[in-house]
Amino acid sequence: MALKLIQRFPRLGQFGIQRHPPVASASPLRTSSAGQPVCVACLCTSAGRCIRRQGCRTLQPDCGIRSLTTIAREPAFVASSSVGLHRDSVPRFSLTQLHRPTAAEEQDFQQRLGSCSSYRQVFKLLRSVEILSDTMAAAALHRVADLEQEGTSLKDPTVLEKDTIRALCFQLEQDSGRLTDAGLVSALLACTRLFLDPWSTLMVRLVSESQDRLDRGEMTVGQLCTLGQAMIAIEGPGCVMLEQVMANIQKQAPAQWSLSDLVAVYRLLQGCIGEDGKYRDLLNAMHTHAVKVTSRMDPAAVSVLLSTLVILNQTQAMPLVISLCKQAVQHVPHFTDEELALVVGALIHFGHSDHYFVQAMEKYVPTMAFTSHPETVTKVMQFFGRRNILSPTVFNAVAESFVYRADDYNTSQVARQIMAFGKLGYLPPNAGNMFRKVEIILHTRFSHFQPRTLLNLLHACILVERFPVNFVSKVFSRYFLQQLQGKIPRMDRLILSQLTQLYMTVKLECPFYEGPKLHSKYRVKSFLMSGRSLETPVDTHLYHSVKNGLIGLLGARSYFGSKVLTPYCYTLASSLAIFLSMDSARESTLKWRTENRASAFVRLIINNMII
Questions:
Q1: Which PANTHER family match (predicted)?
Q2: pLDDT per residue over 551-609, tens digit each?
């Protein structure tokens, strides 16, 4: 088995997994004052005192120390000291099927575990339970990871030195062969979430045992997904074992999976697809099946599927996106902050919105704007802004909460929220208080803003006629403009358009401004851009209605034009500019009056032009 593991993981051969006899060891075990050898558990205390309640037995000559060796392979993994507690150290858990806790006991344990708010409470719960199953032990490790994970490390790395967690790790290491499939893969995943060294004895044993179980081909789809996630954390998406996991998963058609299995595979695919088109047939089959079972999905499942579709950029799966959006309507009040952020982020990504979803959000946002995570509130505002949905109920609630909790927001979140107000040109009832808060943030945290973020914020302010005169001088400075451009040879045209509009607004609305001007090389003469524009796009139906009426009235498309540039850099896109002499205009109007071939809206345009 060791040979097979070393062959699958070449780097593993570089590290020896040794069993050191205490007598022949270069560093013999410490002995007590009476000359008796002290157990490994005793070595873990400062004075060599035994931590077991009933003392320790004399060590046998053939016993040894199994250690969780730590290797600085990646900065994400932190070191843990050797684990050598006695097998009967507290806590203990059952590995056999004969004396497992009942289903009710396990459920009660899971509920109590979920209520723990610190790793100390988790350890206290473990010490209060007489016997644990392997799945309960793994769940405890997962809960510690939930509470202690912070990015790619633990908030308090010393948590791995606590006696309770070391005892659990030792028992998992010693009895890995007797763990159930579910307990084995769950424990392995929990160890990766705690950033244990991948080449420690515990991790190597769990991986080796998982490989054996995988070769037997008896794992369920859900267990395979858990194993796959663990292997991604250890070796990345290109490991051989993950390929075998995916092969086993595909032995069964998605239509035969349970809903939980379907969600688990979607979650796994978020991290294991590194090549374009990989598992395309599997994904298409999953999308087809998912549409049929969407109505049975809970909030977590809806969130997972939508976020997976975004990560994999499944633009061809719009029927599934629409179906998930409809299902999300009834879950809006029940989403966690993270889940709701993922849902609205997915709808932004796919450019989709639903009338009933918007109504549900209008009911929910006033209840969460003051308490939800800052990023969730910001994502909600981005959704309404990007989808051009003006909801006074939502915007007023967020504006009120902004005044009271703006200090909780980072600079990016502040800018993105104000951008939604600017995009839709909406001023809430408390606009004065809100923009005073924005000004305070700009004064106190100006240096914290990224150049592009600052420009977006100031540009949004002028769109709602709030003119940031005190800050434009810094924006027009050569230093700021160099930062804004960065290392690219030419500045993005959208940025230049924002700078131009900011400059034009200050010149027109703030004649008393005497600060530096925007250099001409940073100005544009037209805001028209292919694919995107700072100007509100004209309504397609209205445009074609007017255009067709004018063609019928004037006789040809060449007599008028649209999207005409004005001397003020704006374009006439929402109304049509007609290039006709007054005589031809009157003649055309007379023709319309006699033949009645144009709409009343076109007549209004022509009459206004003549006047």
A1: FAST KINASE DOMAIN-CONTAINING PROTEIN 3, MITOCHONDRIAL (PTHR21228:SF9), FAST LEU-RICH DOMAIN-CONTAINING (PTHR21228)
A2: 888 888 877 777 666 665 566 654 444 444 444 444 544 444 444 444 444 444 544 44
Rounded to whole angstroms, the Cα distance separating 451 from 483 reads 7
- 84: which 2 tokens? 């050598």
What amino acid occupies position 416? R
DSSP strand pairing (132-133 vs 93-94): parallel
Query: Whose CA is closest to 524, among 512, 533, 513, 515?
Result: 533
Question: Within 13 Å, how many C-alpha atoms sit on residue 323's CB side?
Answer: 18
Alpha carbons within 13 A on the beta-carbon side of 589: 20
pLDDT score of 508: 85
Whose tokens are 């849902």? That residue is 343
Q: How far is CA 255 from CA 250, 273, 467, 540, in A?
A: 11, 21, 58, 42
Residue 435 in 3-state DSSP?
A: helix
- Domain borders along the chain are 90-252, 254-352, 540-608
CA distance linking residue 531 with residue 456, whole number of Å:
19
Neighbours of 530 (CB within 10 A): 6
| CA angle 289–291–293, rounded 5-degree value | 75
Rounded Cα–Cα distance for residues 438 and 42 (Å): 59
Minimal CA–CA distance to 467: which of 519, 421, 513, 423? 513
Cα-Cα-Cα-Cα torsion 55, 57, 58, 61, nearest 10 degrees, comes to -140
Indicate the SS3 state at residue 237.
coil
Tell me which amino acid residue 179 is.
L
Torsion sign (Cα): 557, 560, 563, 569: positive
In a 13 Å sphere around the CA of 598, the CA atoms on its Cβ side amount to 26
* CB neighbour class for 167 (10 Å; exposed up to 12, middle 13-18, buried from 19): buried
Predicted TM-score (pTM) of this structure: 0.75
**Which parts of the chain have pLDDT scores under 70?**
1-99, 274-277, 528-537, 563-611
- Tokens standing for residue 24: 């022949």
